[in-house]
User: Fold this.
Amino acid sequence: MEGVKTALYEKHVAAGAKLVPFAGHIMPIQYHSINAEHERVRTTVGVFDVSHMGEIWVKGDRAIDFVNKVTVNNATKLQVNQAQYSAMLYEDGGIIDDLIVYRFPDRIMLVVNAANREKDFEWLQKHAPGDVILDDASDRMSLLAVQGRHAKDVIQKLTDTNLDEIKFYWFRDGIVAGHRTIISSTGYTGEAGFELYVDNENAASLWDAIFEAGKEFDIEPVGLGARDTLRLEMKFALYGNDIDKTTNPIEAGLGWITKVNKGEFVGRDAILEVKSKGLTRKLIGFEIEGKAIPRHEYKCFQGDAEIGHVTSGCWSPSLDKGIGMAYLETEFAQVGTRFEVEIRNKRVAAHVVETPFYNRPY
Amino acid sequence: MANVPQELKYTEDHEWVRVEGDTATFGITDYAQGELGDVVFLELPDEGDDVKQHETFGSIEAVKTVADLFAPLSGEVLAVNGSLEDEPETINKDPYNAGWLVKIKMSKTDELDGLMDAEAYNQHIS
Assistant:
């Protein structure tokens, strides 16, 4: 199989993972069952190897101002040890990537999608002033996401850093299982949890320590298959499915991170134009009425009129029904609106629902 | 390694056939269930329907993907495994026994000649 092996490759093989090529890496899609792994994260705690994600360091006195200029959220508002969900845009308002911005005392870390990493780095290089230094550390860093209501209990056993002090979307530099780790209170599942950034040479040791500490909670490894169903239940966007260079952040429901009043940034003029003209379509969440699974690219109709298309869909293990996200023409985007999805030459009834689809019970 | 019972016949589409007199039972192979992952539900024909070799007689929806079911043989459907409606995961757990899909009365027994034996199927998936 073609692709980069993460530092945890041997762990996945030993755990019986089904490995697939994904964004230039060889990644575990599942270990034994997507549904069971999904359930594990929703009920106790699971661990994901997401080392394929890209980490780009931005250094220099003007690092914050530069990042603020190429991202939509207000990076200047970040305090040290705080993180922020954001996105980079092309001049025309299309999305280059969504990302997380981490503010360290003396530098910034951008965590980007694996498939976009090279494109992102080139874009950053093109826009960076001479005194801003960019360093793509993706090949040196591993990322373990420990997610679920017991994630904190597990990691707290391995560190002196008081995890209760790390609020959602904040982070600390700490020692976990004896290894220097960036402990970030973030995730892509809708559960409480942490993402742990660690040097490659320490990843396997950290992995083992986490599984040992998590035994009492029946901790299990979780593959990218369940990562997808977990994020979909939260209506978290996936680049390449729900957002891409042809979608703008406003129609994608990312208006809350798009701070047009913060000052100049790449893509701002296009966003202002979108806002003044009004949206033609919106990314909505929907439920299928009955037993069927919507999938990427399926068409949406009301009567004979095609009104949009599905961007992501799955059978929701938590809700036990087919759910999805779709771009629908604005007039059909209100909660409760009924429409049909064409699933394998059949029209299946669906309706727009409130999102997230899933709300954690704690 | 996927389990491939000796006594069954197989198709290139990863279905198995168990022949008893003039009836044939269809299912999907252990390899197929492993590739599909968790099965969420199935669409199967009704009793009395005719199925035709190589044509779709249903579909199988798994978490990550959907696959058509192609009839290994032609005939009339005698029985459908109704327990799969409530417990589709049976296909993942026991694809060759409790996870059977349909039983048919064969209309063209010479179609059996085109099926693979266990050895040939093992080759096919290796």
In short: Chain A touches chain B through 17 residues (CB under 8 Å). Chain A has a mean pLDDT of 97. Residues 4-53+139-233 of chain A form a domain with the Gyrase A; domain 2 fold (CATH 3.30.1360.120).
